[in-house]
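Problem 12. The chain below contains 581 residues. Write out its predicted structure in token notation.
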Amino acid sequence: MRVLPRLFALFACLVLAAGCANVPEESQPVAVPQQELGQPVNPDVPQPAKDLDALTVVRDFVRASAQPISNNAAARMYLDDGAGKAWAPGKVITIIDDVFATVPATGADTTANPNEVNVVLRGTGLGTLREDGAFISLRTPVELKLLVRRQSDGQWRITNPPPNLVMPYSDFTANYVRVQAFFFAQDSNTVVPDLRYVAGKPQTGLAGRVVGLLLAGPSTSLVGAVRNLLPEDANTEGNVTTAPDGALVVPLTGVADETADVRRLIAAQIVLSLQSVTTNRVRLLSDGAPLVDGHEDWVPSDLPSYTALASPSADQPGLVTVNGRVRSLGDGSLISGPAGQGSGYQVASAAQSIDGRQLAIVEYADGRQRLRVGQFGKDAAPVDLAGATMTRPTWRPTATADGSGEVWTVVDGQTVVRALRTPDGSWVPQVVNADEILQVGPISVLRLSRDGARAAVVAGGQLLVASVVRAQDSVTLRAPRILQGGTLGGVVDVDWLSQDALVAATTMPSQPVVKIPIDGLRLDPFNISNLTLPVHAITAAPGRSIVVADDGGLWTASDVGEVWRPHPHSFGGNASPFYPG
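Solution.
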């Protein structure tokens, strides 16, 4: 498999330098109260246990590094006086697996001084947390070499702390909070979640840190794929505080000149982004006055739905392709029109638009595959696009009156194409720039998120997520991330469980079906009971049961841990189910 240089540039594997691993030098992911170097340590910071051996000092130092309060004061307690005052860790955090080793150095790295020990920490890096609070998944070996010296009081302390923070996964999740910072799709008022992590303590500043993420804009990978309605000069006038009546006060400046409609969208961004860290009413102010005239305090239920375009309606039960025809997942019947009745097409795969009104199909024709698009239940017009293979189509929604959107597919594993509807009702193909993804391997699956901002891709058997960046005359799949690389392989299908989570089918016997967030921080295997391996297809949608296809037919489950139940209409072993999108 070819190497993806741009991905490696993003991920920057750890290398040894100056006696320790050098993590990429950027800034802290979130602002936390800082303590001036050399000031007395907060007495509330726990002291290391007495008489720890050198290996335990290093282990406890790494775990304490996950506590960001007071300029990482807890970790500084494991450093000698000089290192404790001088240590200024960089701005990227490396997260490692909970299982790691601390061992004495050997060979040339040993020291003859009985009061010094070179300790080597070895572990597996799971990825890095960047300055913008976004996690980048990358499984890679991590090695730190730390010099530990016995102090005058007999205690061992580290003299050369690493240039950046390194912490185990469980300690990271115990001290950092995952939040959804919401922005808007490029051409609609559909909200798009941006997974970020902020320091969980002190609790009083948590909401302010979330607002700070919104003011700073989307994470690097989403730039160009979403809109931030907060203008660049927007800020807060003082801190985000709690009023005596319990309302959370967000005192904005720099937004007074925005239109009433934009201010309502700004309110939605802030209220939705804060809902994961507070249940308080949110009081939104602009230069001291209500941000939205006549509406000062907000709760999430005050907002209209900003995901209507990204969620299939309840009256769309989903479809399934089987034996060249399309059937309903709801009652098992053949759908109306040539795609279901078999009078016109031999269907290889298909995709229904989110509103259910249109159907895109890939058909077998003259020894090749060809794309057709048309109204559901009616004849579908051929698109000037064919190849030896084409991936199952996927719809990108738009806010147009007919809801036509775009239809995407991948031809021969190498050419990503989007078909656009013209004024006369025909569909014209245009090539999408997918160069970064194609360097990973040929593309076998591509599923656009139902908000249109991202694409989940299977390339070379690996699962990736990329942003859909649109310019005036082009579209690019940018900033691809391999999710759980080195752990998750043999991926054969993927779908969007929600806007920020995926489910995938793999050829791995131990985890044939998995759930994974779009940043790849964790991997949750589903129960394998009742499945006949291998699983070859999967579909999911918000609020729907997950449906998988194996050699025995279709199976459903609602979440990880559930035993798979037979679908009411199994259709046999060559069925491929799909929800709208």
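Discussion. The first helix runs from residue 5 to 11. Students who got a different answer should revisit the alignment rule from Section 12.3.
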